[in-house]
Queue: 2 jobs
Job 1
Amino acid sequence: MNEHLLKILIIGDGNVGKSSFLHRYVNGQFNKTYKMTMGVDYAVKLLHWSDKEKVRLQLWDIAGQERFISMNRIYYKGALGCVVMFDVTSSASFLSCRHWKRDLDNKAMLPNGESIPCILLANKCDLPQRVVPPDSIDRFSKANGFITWMEISVKENKNVGEAMRRLVQDILSV
Ligand code: GDP
C-alpha cells in the first residue's frame, strides 16, 4: 500500500467559510457556531484513494485573517496543493483572491519550480444574494492559473468532497 502525505492550504479572506469547509470535510458537519480561532487551524483526513493508494491530507486553514495579508513563508513550506476560497455574496472577497494567489505563487512552489496546484472555490452558492457572476469567476480562474473552479455550499454540503477529490487528483498526477 502506497501512502501519500499531502499538505494542503486553505486560504482566502475571513468569513468566506474556510473553517466551516474544514470542519465539514473532516467531520462531516456544518456547525453555525463554529468559532473562528486566531492563527492556524489544522486537521488531518485519511482517504482510501484506490486499492493501492492511501492519501493522508494535512489541511491547514489560516484562521482569523480578516482580509489579505502577506503570509509567513513557513506556512507555505512543503505545501503540495491549495484551496483559494471566496464568498459569492462578497465581491471584496473575490477581488482578494488575486492577492492570495499571487502571494502563494511567490512563496510556494513544487520541487520542480512550478506553482502548486490550486483550486478556486466559490462558496455560499445556496444564498440568493450572490454578486459574483459565473463568467467573471471563469475568466479570473483561467487568467490566474487555477486548475479549475467550482461552486460549493458548505452549508448544504454541495461539492465539498468533489472539490477536494479534484484537487487531490491533480496533485497526484503532477
Ligand atoms: P472563515 O472565517 O473563512 O473561516 O469562515 P467561517 O467558516 O467562520 O464562516 C463564516 C460564516 O459563514 C459563518 O457564519 C458560517 O456559518 C457561514 N457559512 C459558511 N459556509 C456557508 C455556506 O455554504 N452557506 C451559507 N449560507 N453560510 C455559510
Note: Residues 14-20, 32, 36, 63, 123-124, 126-127, 153-155 surround guanosine-5'-diphosphate (CB under 6 Å).
Job 2
Amino acid sequence: DFTPTPADRFTFGLWTVGNTGRDPFGEPTRPPLRAPYIVEKLAGLGAYGVNLHDNDLVPIDASAAERDRIVAEFRQALSDHGLVVPMATTNLFSDPAFKDGAFTSADAQVRAYALQKTMRSMDLGAELGAHTYVFWGGREGTEVDAGGKLLSALGWFRDSLNFLAEYSEAQGYGYRFALEPKPNEPRADIFLPTVGSALGFIGTLDRPDLFGVNPEFAHETMAGLNFAHAVAQALDAGKLFHIDLNDQKMSRFDQDLRFGSENLKGAFTLVKLLEDSGYDGPLHFDAHALRTEDEAGVWAFARGCMRTYLILKDKARQFDADPEIQAALAEYHRADEELAALSRFTPENAASLKERTFDRAALGRRGLGLEHLDQLTNDLLFGIR
Ligand code: 3MF
Ligand code: MG
Ligand code: MG
Ligand code: MG
C-alpha cells in the first residue's frame, strides 16, 4: 500500500521538513520545529534517516557546553526512534561572513574560517555516524566578474577540498564527499553550475576517488537541463554518491517542490533509472512544504514524497513486466552480434568495416515505434494498463 519503511532508505534534511516558509519577500508562515521532534515524526512516517547542516542543529554561536547538550539530546532521539544520519554538510551560506563565498571568497580570512567551520562540522557528522559529506557551494560564485576571481576561484576551491579530504583521512572519518552543483541562486552565477562541471572538476583533485556528486532535480532543471541525463552521467562515471530528490518548474528560482509534484514523467524516468542502476545510497528529499501549509501540510508533503517514489518504483516494475511495452522495446533496440564484434578496433576490423555496404536508405526509412512506446508509458502512468 505504498507505506514506506526504513528499508526504502528515504531521508529528509532537518532543514526540509523544518522549513518555516520564509522566502525573500515574506516572513515565516510556520513555527520552527525542534530537531528531536522532527526525528520522532520522520520515524513515525517510515523514513530511514535525517541529514543536517551543522547549524540546523547547533546554532553558530553556541558554547561548547550548549553544543554538547544539543547533540546529546539529538542522539538520544535518533536512538529512541531508530533513525540514522547518513549525510552531513556545512552551512557555508547563511552567515554574512560568507556573503562573497566561503572556499572561493577573495578574502583569505574567510577561506580559512570556512575550513575551520567545515572541520568542526565534519567532526559533528562523524559523531552522528555520517559517511557521506556534501558540499553545496551556495555562495561560491559572483555577481561582479570584474572582481577578477575567475582565474583563482577554482584553485582556492580545489585547495580547500584537498585539505578537507586529507583531514577526513587523518581523522579516520572515511567520508565520501559529494559536490552538489547549482547554476545560480543565491549568487547570480555559482561556480561548478552543473553535474557535468562538477564531474570535470573532480578529476583535478588530489583524491578524486573520495569525491562524487550530489545532483539535485531542481538544480539541473533550473539550468534547463534534463535531470535524469545528469544522473545517468554521474552513474556512468561511478560518481553518484548521494541524490537530492524534489521537483521544479523549468528555468525558475529554486522551488524545492514535493517529489513528483510537477514533472511526473521526469520523476518516473528518474526512479526507473535509479532502480535499474542498482544505486543503493540514501534517497534524500531536499524539498519543503509550500509556504501555504501549516504543520499538517508539512507531514502531508513528506508522506507524499515517499509515496510518489514508491508508486513510481512499482510502475517501473510494471513497465518491465508489460509484454506490449517489452515488445516495443525489443523492436526499438536492434542488436547485431557480428557488427558488435566488428566495432572492437583491430586493423582487420577497421578494414572490413570500411568495405562493408550499408543500406542507408533502409536505415533512414525504418520507423522506431517511439510514439507507440511513449503512449504505452503514459497509459501505464495514468493507471489504465
Ligand atoms: C540549496 C540546496 C542545499 C543543499 C544542502 C546540502 C540547503 O539549493 O540544495 O540545501 O542541498 O546544503 O545538501
Ligand atoms: Mg536546492
Ligand atoms: Mg532546490
Ligand atoms: Mg540540495
Note: The pocket of 3-O-methylfructose in linear form (ligand 1) is lined by residues 15, 53, 89, 134, 136, 138, 180, 182, 216, 244, 254, 286 (CB under 6 Å).
